[in-house]
Structures are given as structure tokens and as C-alpha cells.
């Protein structure tokens, strides 16, 4: 008897989580119903563990061995996640005090990759340090590869490479380490991008080599854990950035103090005590940000109802790819590059220049907009769409425009004077534009989808068939027939 037949039999007997069971588990549940509940609970926990391990849902901080005080003491202590693990480091040299570290394999050689962005005030310093050590003008290279979830390794293939921006390239052949830095502003999305690859399978040696490399570059602090005061400054800065952006962009990264940011928050009508409600969460593969839990209630009161992103296509295979276990969800252009996926986004070239390519684009639907606009009236709005709960807006890393602005982070394009979170929502509610866009850094997790909509019943059925062919029988615990609906208007 086939697994498919067993799943149908188990489903008929109302065995929970049967679509995720192995053949042996299905046989036991059918043959001995008394054991079905216990097996269902085991499968439920396995699903939770699997989601955690692939970083599609929040993942706890890396658990260090008792004799390891810091992740760079032994990189082997990293959870085995091929998308990478976000680690808080540094004071202000690294943007957002965040590095992403993962295991890599290049043509059979194992190693580690560390990526992050350098804060603007330190660009010239790092550029000069790399040049003094012999760095050459080159390009940043994103090798094609694939996410190996079974071993927790990203396997690169150097024969196929994406080269989207000029960069400095520093090779240290003696220590088998190489680093890149994008200092050219022309590709705003990559501006400040910094990467180190060290090719050794020895986690302790790799950590030591990276620390030494950072020291030679004059940014050794990038490997240090932020002090409590630095963490508080970052939290306050996130609040200011989200709710008073015009003030936030004018603060000097190098000279920020707790007292200064606290005063700016008060002047902006923001209670500094709100920083204590911010939760540091892994919100996407290899990426974390602060989340202001509960603020979505205020956003709902202002009119926000849901977020959505269209594919601009009715191709069920493309939609199913986003929902597979090795996919974290809706990925930014740069996140796709880092996962070895070179398919083009909606406006990839323009977004690389404006800065939008480091974010995933979605649109906001508010209370007064419902029923008034066709999805197909929006760019890439037709075909199949993904919908998220407004709780995603509790992340403090998004910015928005009520027009198509290619996700620009250029001051001249309005980034400096963009509206606060609540004011943007009110504007979309009262003066809707089909070009409205919200940019979330790195991407949006598929685990937080609330439903999928299709233009027609034929498109819906095609998507259901495609998902079933990939052994996906439910989404978010709901049967596909409930989760995927026909809907052609906001």
C-alpha cells in the first residue's frame, strides 16, 4: 500500500498531522487507534523542531558548550542551519550589531562564511585598511549553490556566479581566508556589505583566524559582544527609526549616547520605556530584529488589515517553490543571491541601485481600501498572491511609501523624510495608491502567512495539485482547500 493511500486512510479516521507522518507511523495509527494520539503529538513536536532548525520560525540564540564563552571561540557551536545564524556583535561598526554566520562547502572543501554590513561612518576606514593590506579592486561574488538542510551547509558552486557590484577583494592565502567589501554607493542595496570566508573545518581555528583578520583590518570590535549600554542604544534607535524617521537619520552613529537618544524619543512623543517591550527575535532565515509586540493593535486601529505580495504570475510551480521546506519564504533579491537563486525579482536592477534589493516588497491593505481595487491593477498583482497578518508590522525594520519608489533608501528619493509607521498606515487608509510598498529587510517568513489568494478557481486548483504533488497537504495546520481561496479584489 502506498504512503499516499495510507495518508488518505488516516485522514478519513481524523488522525491529526497524518500528512506529516512516515509510512510506519501511518500504519501504526491505522492498525492501533489507541496509539494515534501519542504519535500525533510526537509528529507535532517534530514539525516544531524542524521549523526551528531551518530558521523559518524564530530560533533561540546559539547554545554554546559550557567551555565556550563566545561563538568565535568555536564556530562549530553554531546550530547547523544552511541559511545562517544571526549573532549580535560589535557596538556600532556593524550595522544593527548583527553578523550572520554559516557553514559552507566549496567544491568539497568545508569552511565558514561571515556576512554583515559596515555602518557608513566606518566605510573609509575599512577601505583604506584593506587597500593597505593589498586588497584589489574586483567585484562581490555570490556563487550559485543549494541549501543542504540535512547537513546544515550551504554548498557553493563557483562555476556559476552572480557579480552585482564592484568591491574590494582581500586574499590571505597563508591562512586560507578571503574578504570582500562593497564601498561603491552606486549599488545602494549592497553598499557596506562585508563578507569573510575562511576555509577550514576546524571551528576553533576558524574563529581565531576571523578574529585576527578583523584585528588586522582595524575592526576587531566586530567580533565582540555588545555591552548592555550598546544594546540599549540600539533598541532606542530602532524605536526612533520606526516612529520618527526624520530625526533618526540625523543622529551620528559614532557619538550616540543613551541620554541623547532618550531625549530625542521624548521630544518625538515616544515613551523611552517602550524599549523594554522590544523583543530580539529571529524573524527570517539568518536574520533577527527587534519586535514591538502588541503595537499591531494600534496599527489596526489606524486602519491596517493585512499585507500581501503578488507573483504577477499564475504559475503554481513558482508559488510552490516558496512554500517548500528549504525555502524561508518571500526572499529579498540579496537573500536569493545568498541562497544561490538567481531568478529575477520584480525590478531587480532598479532595486539594487535604490537599496530596495535588500528587502522584500509587500503592499498594505487598510479598512477603507477593501473591495475597491482589483489585485490585477497593481504591478505584479495578478495570478497568485501571499497574504500576511498585520502582526508582521510589529517588526521594527520596515519602511514604506504610498507610491512605487523602488524601495529607495536614498535621501533624495524621500527616505529621509518618510512618514512614521502610524502615519503611513493612516495615509494608505485615506488616500490609497496601487503603488504603495512596504519593505521588510531580508524577507517575510512563510510560517506567518494567513492565506493564499488566486484570481480564479482554475488557478487555485492548479496550485493545490502542485502542492499535493510535493507532499504538501496543509498549510498552517489548515487543509489546502481552506487556506487557498479565490479572491480578485482587496
List the helices and strands and how they pair.
Layout: H1 3-12, H2 23-31, H3 36-53, E1 85-88, E2 98-106, E3 109-117, H4 123-132, E4 136-139, E5 142-148, E6 153-162, E7 166-172, E8 177-181, E9 193-198, H5 203-216, H6 228-243, H7 245-248, H8 258-267, E10 278-284, E11 287-292, H9 296-301, E12 304-310, H10 316-323, E13 329-331, H11 333-338, H12 348-354, E14 359-366, E15 384-388, E16 399-401, H13 421-430, E17 437-441, E18 443-445, E19 449-454, H14 457-469, E20 474-475, E21 478-479, H15 480-483, E22 484-486
Parallel strand pairs: 2-6, 19-22
Antiparallel strand pairs: 1-2, 2-3, 3-9, 4-7, 5-6, 7-8, 8-9, 10-11, 12-14, 12-15, 13-18, 14-17, 15-19, 16-17, 20-21
Description:
This protein has 490 residues and is of the alpha+beta class. It has helices spanning 3-12, 23-31, 36-53, 123-132, 203-216, 228-243, 245-248, 258-267, 296-301, 316-323, 333-338, 348-354, 421-430, 457-469, 480-483; strands at residues 85-88, 98-106, 109-117, 136-139, 142-148, 153-162, 166-172, 177-181, 193-198, 278-284, 287-292, 304-310, 329-331, 359-366, 384-388, 399-401, 437-441, 443-445, 449-454, 474-475, 478-479, 484-486. Strands 1, 2, 3, 4, 5, 6, 7, 8 and 9 form a nine-stranded mixed β-sheet that branches. A seven-stranded mixed β-sheet has the order 16-17-14-12-15-19-22. A two-stranded antiparallel sheet has the order 10-11. The longest helix has 18 residues, at 36-53. It is globular and about 70 Å long. The relative contact order is 0.11. The model is unreliable at 52-68 (pLDDT under 50).
Amino acid at each position: 500500500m502506498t504512503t499516499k493511500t495510507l495518508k488518505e486512510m488516516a485522514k478519513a479516521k481524523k488522525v491529526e498531522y497524518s500528512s506529516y507522518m512516515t509510512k510506519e507511523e501511518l500504519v501504526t495509527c491505522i492498525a492501533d487507534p489507541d496509539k494515534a494520539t501519542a504519535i500525533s503529538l510526537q509528529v507535532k513536536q517534530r514539525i516544531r523542531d524542524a521549523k526551528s532548525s531551518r530558521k523559518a520560525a524564530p530560533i533561540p540564540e546559539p547554545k554554546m558548550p559550557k567551555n565556550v564563552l563566545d561563538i568565535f571561540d568555536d564556530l562549530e557551536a553554531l546550530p547547523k542551519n544552511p541559511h545562517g545564524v544571526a549573532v549580535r556583535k560589535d557596538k556600532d561598526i556593524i550595522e544593527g550589531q548583527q553578523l550572520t554566520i554559516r557553514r559552507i562547502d566549496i567544491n568539497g572543501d568545508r569552511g565558514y562564511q561571515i556576512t554583515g554590513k559596515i555602518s557608513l561612518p566606518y566605510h573609509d576606514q575599512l577601505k583604506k585598511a584593506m587597500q593597505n593590506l593589498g586588497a584589489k579592486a574586483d567585484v562581490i561574488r555570490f556563487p550559485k549553490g543549494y541549501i543542504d538542510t540535512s547537513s546544515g551547509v550551504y554548498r557553493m558552486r563557483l562555476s556559476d556566479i552572480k557579480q552585482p557590484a564592484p568591491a574590494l577583494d582581500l586574499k590571505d592565502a597563508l591562512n586560507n581566508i578571503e574578504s570582500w567589501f562593497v564601498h561603491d554607493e552606486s549599488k545602494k542595496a549592497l553598499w557596506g556589505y562585508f563578507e569573510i570566508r575562511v576555509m577550514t573545518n576546524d571551528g576553533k581555528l576558524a574563529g581565531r583566524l576571523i578574529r585576527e583578520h578583523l584585528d588586522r583590518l582595524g575592526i576587531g570590535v566586530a567580533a565582540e559582544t555588545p555591552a548592555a549600554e550598546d544594546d540599549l542604544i540600539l533598541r532606542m534607535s530602532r524605536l526612533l527609526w520606526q516612529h520618527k524617521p526624520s530625526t533618526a537619520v540625523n543622529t551620528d552613529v559614532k557619538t550616540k549616547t543613551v541620554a541623547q537618544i532618550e531625549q530625542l524619543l521624548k521630544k518625538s512623543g515616544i515613551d523611552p520605556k517602550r524599549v523594554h517591550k522590544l523583543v530580539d527575535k529571529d524573524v527570517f532565515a539568518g536574520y533577527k530584529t527587534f519586535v514591538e509586540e502588541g503595537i499591531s493593535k494600534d496599527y489596526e486601529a489606524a486602519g491596517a488589515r493585512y499585507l500581501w505580495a503578488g507573483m504577477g504570475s499564475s504559475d503554481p510551480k513558482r508559488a510552490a517553490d516558496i512554500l517548500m521546506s528549504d525555502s524561508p519564504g518571500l526572499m529579498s533579491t540579496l537573500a536569493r543571491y545568498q541562497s544561490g537563486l538567481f531568478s529575477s525579482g520584480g525590478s531587480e536592477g532598479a532595486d539594487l541601485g535604490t537599496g530596495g534589493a535588500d528587502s522584500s516588497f509587500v503592499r498594505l491593505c487598510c479598512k477603507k481600501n477593501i473591495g475597491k481595487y482589483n489585485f490585477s491593477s497593481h504591478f505584479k498583482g495578478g495570478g497568485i498572491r501571499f497574504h500576511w497578518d498585520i502582526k508582521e508590522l510589529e517588526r521594527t525594520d520596515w519602511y514604506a511609501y504610498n507610491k512605487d519608489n523602488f524601495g529607495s533608501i536614498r535621501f533624495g528619493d524621500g527616505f529621509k523624510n518618510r512618514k512614521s509607521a502610524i502615519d503611513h498606515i493612516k495615509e494608505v487608509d485615506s488616500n490609497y495608491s496601487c503603488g504603495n510598498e512596504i519593505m521588510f529587510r531580508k524577507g517575510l517568513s512563510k510560517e506567518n502567512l494567513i492565506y493564499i489568494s488566486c484570481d480564479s478557481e482554475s488557478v487555485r486548483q492548479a496550485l493545490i495539485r502542485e502542492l499535493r504533488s510535493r507532499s504538501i497537504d496543509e498549510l498552517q495546520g489548515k487543509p489546502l482547500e481552506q487556506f487557498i481561496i479565490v479572491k480578485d479584489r482587496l
